[in-house]
Design a protein that fits this description.
Layout (H helix, E strand, L loop, with lengths): L1 H40 L1 H9 L4 H38 L8 H27 L3 H7 L1
């Protein structure tokens, strides 16, 4: 019985890991999609920044900083909301008391920031390559 329970726990851990990876991939794609939309909406502003002398790497860094802030905010919010749900619903749904683990706050926040950066690399790169004058003519 014990060996069956151990195998079941290992299988559940593997399934949980696969689900987590899928969630992270979807999150990265969602952040990238948001950043693409943001870059397309802000072509004029990016063009103006380039015309007044902002170098390409400054535009790139600006968008990556935005991605980091979004990731930090999302990671922190996700940890707090998830911990509150687990704390209050854990006893009634699973029949066990769930306590927040503080080190997971650091892990979740850093992971969310990392996924946000990865999802924003391509949109930030293309935004930094915009030619300022052609952007102004399109709008």
């Amino acid at each position: 019985i014990v060996s069956t329970q151990i195998k079941t726990n290992q299988l559940m851990n593997q399934i949980s890991l696969i689900i987590l990876i899928i969630i992270l991939i979807v999150g990265g794609i969602s952040i990238g999609n948001y950043m693409w939309a943001n870059v397309n909406e802000r072509k004029k502003e990016i063009g103006i920044l380039r015309m007044i002398g902002f170098p390409r790497y400054s535009i790139y860094k600006l968008l990556l900083i935005k991605a980091v802030l979004m990731g930090l905010t999302g990671g922190l919010t996700g940890y707090v909301v998830g911990s509150l749900i687990a704390y209050f619903l854990g006893p009634s749904l699973a029949g066990m008391h769930v306590a927040p683990i503080p080190i997971l706050l650091l892990y979740s926040t850093l992971l969310a920031a990392g996924i946000s950066i990865l999802g924003s690399l391509l949109p930030a790169y293309f935004a930094s390559r915009f030619e300022p004058y052609s952007n102004m003519q399109e709008i």
